[in-house]
Amino acid sequence: MNKTWAQLEELQPQVLKILNNALVKDRVAHAYIFEGNRGTGKKEVSVLFAKSLLCQDNRGVYPCNECINCKRIDSGNHPDMHVVEPDGNSIKKEQIQQLQSEFVKAGVESNRKIYVIEHVDRMTVNAANSLLKFLEEPNSETYAILLTENPQKLLNTIISRCQVLSFRTLPPIHLQTRLINEGVDESSAIILSNLTNSMEEALQLNNDEWFGLGRKLVIQLYEVLMNRPHQALLFIHENWVKHFTDKAQNEVGLNLLLLLYRDILHIQIDQEEKVVFSYKKEELKKDALQQSQKKTVRSLELILEAKNKLNSNMNLQLLMEQLVLDLQEG
Length: 330
Prior knowledge:
This protein is an alpha/beta fold. The protein has two domains: 5-166, 3-Layer(aba) Sandwich (Rossmann fold); 208-329, Zinc Finger, Delta Prime, domain 3 (Up-down Bundle), CATH 1.20.272. Helices cover 58% and strands 8% of the residues. It contains 16 helices and five strands. It has helices at 5-11, 13-24, 42-54, 68-75, 93-104, 125-136, 156-159, 172-181, 186-195, 199-206, 209-227, 232-243, 247-268, 281-290, 293-309, 316-329, and strands spanning 31-35, 81-84, 113-117, 142-148, 163-166. A five-stranded parallel beta sheet has the order 2-3-4-1-5, sandwiched between helices. α11 packs across α13 (247-268) and α15 (293-309) runs antiparallel to α16. The longest helix has 22 residues, at 247-268.
């Protein structure tokens, strides 16, 4: 179900306030960059904003959600709203050129035309240059909304021609509540909401047998490191690398391990209410007494360093072996 203006305003008050003022004062920018993490509502706000611009029966700035324009935007087939997504791993020059050719034509329903480019940071160099030319010669009734999780990868010349709106990361409790309402058990909902901001990704992980087994393996590795550290290398060789086979899977595993060590730190600084692995709390409390706060912080630093190395060409098994050796030394 599509969120209303009021619902999105609750999640992203600053962004919605800026867009509201732009609509009220009739000072809508010809191009916006919506930047923020996954699951922060960028796509939903872009759809809502497009409705406000094209709605036949606006209630002030709020779209009616009932007229033919609103319904066609919801179904993804409004002739004056175009959405561009990566073709494979990137957005190609041909996609931007096709978009430009559409915008040469007059609007079907009105003179207004809107285009939304998802993952705009994935444009090829040629596509980025084509988009730049498009942005440099805006039609007064043409509006661009560029969505990205990585604004630092965009050309400065593109950024300078857009109004940048930053979407704040939502607190885990927001996603946790939504997951529980969808039937996810509370302990899993707490963990998932601390792993991702995306409802879609959280539900996908929750329904994935791989994730369930991976979660168990991470806890086992943690227990080996705490109680039988001399067996950690063997565990990596016999268990970890057979299950966590690529960079993305290893990132999930390291994120879970990070949460476990963060739980220990929360216990050590008297913030037990923030423990994520709540069903392991008693065990974690015992572990928290057996090591110093300094060592816990160092462990967190080492796991973060390993996560950063995932983007290099380092062999994944060597990376994990080095991590457990470092964690043993503290």
